[in-house]
Give the backbone structure.
Amino acid sequence: MTPETNVRRRLAAALVSLAIMAPAAAFDLNSDTPIKVTADNARLDDAKGIATYTGDVELEQGQTRLDAERVVLYRDANGLSRIEASGEPARYRQPARDGNGETDARALNITWSATDQRITFEREAIIEQNGNLFRGNIIHYDTQDRVVTAEGGTDTGSGPGRVEMVIQPRSTDSRTD
């Protein structure tokens, strides 16, 4: 095998691993499974369609879970349209798409938008799955097209503010040369 072929295989494996570690469809509004919210405090402004939960907030739908210090739910005529979560950090977890393991994502701010079909992890964002890691200042995940994009932060002097990705090697049994 030529070095160029080896590099191409590794790049292809990296891209496949990135696609696998992305979260699935997040909260499913077409599901019969309700979204359950618990918190220390709640405020509902029915006229504006805004519910604000604070203090050890837990949001669950099936095996998908969001934990944060503050969660704001926005409703429109079509139902739940947006979820904004913040914490030190806020944490989003759900089973991996392939059924092996769990996607564990953390950021200081997490926003889920039904209209944009996107989850955005902002500030100190990290997504982990099965030892693979994706880190950036901002990570966007398009839940419809399954596309992940990331941005590094500005260099603050303590680090370069770049995007980082760690991909675990495949087991030796599945490698072919």
Notes: The chain has one domain: 3-166. The first strand starts at residue 36 and ends at 38. The helical segments are 3-21. The longest helix spans residues 3-21.
